[in-house]
Write the structure tokens for this entry.
Amino acid sequence: MPVPSPSLPLASRLLRWTGAAWFVAAVVGQAAFIVFILAFYGLRTATGNFAGWNEKPLIDGYVAGDDLGNLVFIAHVLMAAVVTLGGLMQLWPALRRRLPRLHRWTGRAFLVVAVFMALSGAWLTLVRGTWLSEVSAVAILGDAVLILVFAALAWRRALQRRFEAHRVWAMRAFMAVRGVWFLRVGLMAWIILCRGPVGITETLSGPVDIVLVFGSYLIPLAVLELYLAAGRSPRIALKIAAAALVGLAALYTAVGVFGTVAFMWGPYL
């Protein structure tokens, strides 16, 4: 039996450290996302100021006379806070170990809400026409399909008690569900790093927009697959390469989180 290289444990730790760094950046950014949803949409809904949903530009959430559309829109938005919190709880290893029953129930809630988010997002796109460009509409529908597939497979693997496979499919579902969040973070990080909206338009139809609307879920999924593959592999070079990529993703995410909080969400609270 070959003797493991002394560098292998270090490479494994480096991979875990960069993964933890990305997770911390994501937790901060998604906690800010929850606060924004509740403070902006939640407060206006609770006080009956439905027209106030449109105080944040780009997409009109409230349309006079469209009761069904308004209901689906606000349910979709408020459920985004629920699915974000549930997803973060699912990724918390200590919760899985110490409170398995809570983990199971939050997991069920996460998958159910994820399916609702996918279906309501598709309905808003196809029926209500809540999109900025044809490209972004196609990207939304593609993400919805992936969410439904990943959620179904995660649920099935849990029922089969194939818990490691369930964990992987649940992580894929989490990445797909957070596509809207990744898009905002990706856009703001790009604008900050380029010192301006290079390749970005207000209708999300510019060259960078096209990359990011599809990349908002395809890129995180690709990084996740590389991270998982590197974690299973005994190859030191693969672990180091994956750690470097995840480390860059953590830095990019941190810049994007700062941008979304400072310029996209903060000014409207």
Remarks:
- Residues 7-268 form one domain.
- The chain has one domain: 7-268.
